[in-house]
């Protein structure tokens, strides 16, 4: 189960609050303290391709889109 799809089951469990509470307790992803899943893009939430240098915390795709607005220049 990935970090985004466990909430899709809520639709069927809304009528049964006791079962929903139990489902959340055992199936929610745990909070990460270290590792690759800890660092996420602050713009889109992507895990991979993370740039944390200079405190940016963007994925490489988002960084390419907003680099000029942040003041970065591309040198040839």
Explain this structure:
The chain has 76 residues and is mainly α. It has one domain: 30s Ribosomal Protein S14, Chain N (Irregular). It has 3 helices and 2 strands; from the N terminus they run ααββα. The chain has helices at 10-13, 17-27, 60-70, and strands spanning 50-51, 58-59. It has a two-stranded antiparallel sheet. Strand 1 and strand 2 form a beta hairpin. It is elongated, with a radius of gyration of 18 Å. The termini are far apart. The relative contact order is 0.11. The mean pLDDT is 85.
What's the SSE blueprint?
Blueprint: H1 10-13, H2 17-27, E1 50-51, E2 58-59, H3 60-70
Antiparallel strand pairs: 1-2
In short:
This protein is mainly α and 76 residues long. It has helices spanning 10-13, 17-27, 60-70, and strands spanning 50-51, 58-59.
Primary descriptors:
30s Ribosomal Protein S14, Chain N; two-stranded antiparallel ribbon; 76 residues; mainly alpha; 34% helix
The helix tally amounts to: 3
Q: What's the CATH C level?
A: Few Secondary Structures
Q: Can you say what the CATH homologous superfamily is?
A: Ribosomal Protein S14/S29
Q: Could you say what the CATH topology is called?
A: 30s Ribosomal Protein S14, Chain N
């Amino acid at each position: 189960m990935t970090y985004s799809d466990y909430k899709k089951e809520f639709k069927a469990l809304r009528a049964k609050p006791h079962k929903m509470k139990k489902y959340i307790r055992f199936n929610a992803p745990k909070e990460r303290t270290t590792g690759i899943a800890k660092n996420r893009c602050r713009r889109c939430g992507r895990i991979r391709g993370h740039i944390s240098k200079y405190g940016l915390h963007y994925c490489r795709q988002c960084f390419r889109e907003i680099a000029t607005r942040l003041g970065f220049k591309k040198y040839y």
